[in-house]
């Protein structure tokens, strides 16, 4: 059975989206971006809300830009090889291959997808992830923690949820970014 992974870059104070500005230093560093690519290379299906999909669809055509570094091209190839499911009531069409739209998030359909999949799944975006967390579907949490305190925004973990987690991997980068991977008990 495949795992469902929730991962985001987060601020030091736990926000996946800052109320104002950005989250601080993130995956721009080639070492960090290569690490992220290596961690998520095995993901076979990405679950997105509309806004996250509109951010990530960049990877569909990045190869058309000049002077793209090899680690960026590798990430784009891996992303394009994966299936994508976009949960949206407003999105009319998608602009990437291997992508379909679902109008509602159905926990039972995701549970079945996990059971039938040979590759892990990733849920991206704090709002969609909150639904997966509430349904008890998330098996692992991958946090990329910046050195910035943003003071508000959309939290990585939804309010009103208690989770007991085990730290299974951690890595720090020269920039101060910390990667922490937790597994649900």
- Mean pLDDT across every amino acid position: 95
Shape from CA axes? globular
CATH superfamily: Dihydrofolate Reductase, subunit A
Level-2 CATH architecture: 3-Layer(aba) Sandwich
Distance, first to last CA: 16 Å
* Major β-sheet annotation: 8 strands, mixed
Structure description:
The protein has one domain (4-184): 3-Layer(aba) Sandwich (Dihydrofolate Reductase, subunit A). It contains five helices and ten strands; from the N terminus they run E-E-H-E-H-H-E-E-H-E-H-E-E-E-E. Strand 9 and strand 10 form a beta hairpin. Helix 1 runs parallel beside helix 3 (70-81). With 185 residues, the chain is an alpha/beta fold. The protein is 26% helix and 30% strand. The chain has helices at 30-40, 50-56, 70-81, 107-116, 126-134, and strands spanning 4-10, 15-18, 43-49, 83-87, 99-102, 120-124, 140-145, 153-155, 165-172, 178-184. The strands form two sheets. The chain has an eight-stranded mixed sheet with strand order 5-4-3-6-1-7-10-9, sandwiched between helices. The protein has a two-stranded antiparallel sheet with strand order 2-8. The protein is globular. InterPro entries: DHFR-like_dom_sf, RibDG_C, Riboflavin_Biosynth_HTPR. One of its GO terms (biological process) is riboflavin biosynthetic process. Residues 3-177 form the Bacterial bifunctional deaminase-reductase C-terminal domain. It holds the Pfam family RibD_C. GO terms for molecular function: 5-amino-6-(5-phosphoribosylamino)uracil reductase activity.
């Amino acid at each position: 059975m495949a795992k469902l992974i929730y991962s985001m870059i987060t601020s030091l104070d736990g926000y996946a989206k800052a109320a104002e500005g950005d989250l601080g230093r993130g995956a721009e560093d080639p070492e960090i971006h290569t690490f992220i690519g290596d961690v998520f290379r095995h993901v076979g299906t990405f679950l997105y809300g509309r806004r996250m999909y509109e951010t990530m669809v960049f990877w569909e055509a990045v190869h058309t830009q000049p002077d793209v570094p090899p680690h960026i091209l590798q990430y784009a190839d891996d992303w394009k090889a994966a299936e994508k499911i976009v949960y949206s009531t407003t999105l009319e069409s998608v602009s990437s291959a291997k992508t379909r739209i679902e109008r509602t998030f159905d926990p039972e359909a995701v549970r079945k997808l996990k059971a039938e999949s040979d590759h892990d799944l990733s849920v991206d975006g704090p709002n969609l992830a909150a639904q997966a967390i509430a349904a008890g579907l998330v098996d692992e949490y991958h946090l990329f923690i910046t050195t910035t305190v943003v003071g508000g925004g959309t939290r990585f973990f939804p309010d009103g949820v208690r989770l007991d987690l085990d730290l299974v991997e951690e890595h720090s980068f020269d920039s101060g970014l910390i990667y922490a991977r937790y597994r649900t008990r």
